[in-house]
Amino acid sequence: MAATKHILRYLKGNTDWGMFFLKADEQNEVVLEAFFDSDWCGDKVERMSTYGYLFRYLDAPISWCSKKQKVVALSSCEAEYVVASKAACQSLWLEVVLEELKLDYRTPVQLNIDNNSAINLSKNPTLHERSKHIDMKLHFLRDQVSSGKLTLLYCHTEEQTTDVFTKPLKQATFDKLRKQIGMSSLEFLDRRGGVDSCN
User: Fold this and answer.
1) Max Cα separation, the chain?
2) pLDDT of 10 above 90
3) Segment 137-144 long-range contacts (CB within 8 Å, at least 24 positions apart)
4) In this structure, what are the phi and psi dihedrals at residue 22, rounded to the nearest 5 degrees?
5) pTM of the complete model
6) In whole angstroms, what is the distance from residue 7 CA to residue 31 CA?
7) Do the beta carbons of residue 141 and residue 133 sit within 8 Å?
8) CB 76 within 8 A of CB 119
9) What does the pLDDT read at residue 93?
C-alpha cells in the first residue's frame, strides 16, 4: 500500500512531464537502439531478478518493459544474458513493425549492456563450464549476433537508463536517467520553444 501511495504521489506531482517524438531530418540520425539491465536476485524471497529494457527510435522511447524473470539466475552474467535474449526478440519484432511502416533505421540494431561477460557469451560459440546450464532457447541471442542482425555494445553502469526500471535510485540519479529516457517537462519545452519541433 505504501508503494502504491508513493507512485500516486509521484504521478500527481509530475503531471507536466511527457515524451516527445522528434521529426526525422538530416540532423536526427535514424537509430533504433536498446538499453537493458537486470538486478541479480533482487527479490529477496524468491531470489529472482527484475529486468528492464527500453528501445529508442530517433532518441524517443517507443517500447519498454520491467518484469520479474521466470528463472533464478546463478550469476549476474546469466541474469543479463536472459534479458539480452528478451531484448533480441523485441528488437526483431520492432524491426518488422518499422519495415511495415516503411520507416528507415540504421542496422545492425544496437543493444547496450553493462556486463562484459554477457557480451562475451553472446559472441563465443563454445559453451564453457559457467554457461552449460543456460537454456538453449536463450542462445537465440548468440544466433542474432553471429548473423550480424544485432550488435551488443558495452554501456557503463552509470549510463544504463534501464536502472530506472530495475532498482531504487537516489533522486539525482533518477532525474538524470529520466531525462536520458526521453521524458521532458512541458513547461521547460514551452520556454525553449521546443514543442513545435516535435510531432
Assistant:
1) 57
2) no
3) 137/85, 138/81, 138/82, 138/85, 139/85, 140/85, 140/88, 140/89, 141/81, 141/84, 141/85, 141/88, 144/88, 144/91, 144/92
4) -75, 155
5) 0.69
6) 32
7) no
8) no
9) 92
C-alpha–C-alpha distance, residues 197 and 199, integer Å: 7
Pick from 26-40, 83-97, 106-120: least confident: 26-40
* The three three-digit cell numbers of residue 143, written as one number: 544466433
Q: Phi first, then psi: what are they for 34, rounded to 5°? A: -130, 150
- What would the grid cell of residue 161 be? 537508463
Q: Are 38 and 77 in contact (CB under 8 A)?
A: no
Helix (H, G, I), strand (E, B) or coil at 179: helix
Alpha helices in the chain (DSSP H): 2-13, 76-100, 116-123, 140-146, 163-166, 171-181, 186-192
pLDDT at 197 over 60: no
Q: How does residue 199 score in pLDDT terms, banded at 50, 70 and 90? A: very low
Contacts of 31 (CB under 8 A, 6+ apart): 56, 57, 58, 59, 105, 106, 110
Written as one letter, the residue type at 74 is: L
- Domains in the chain and their CATH numbers? 27-191 (3.30.420.10)
Count other Cβ atoms within 10 Å, centred on residue 63. 17
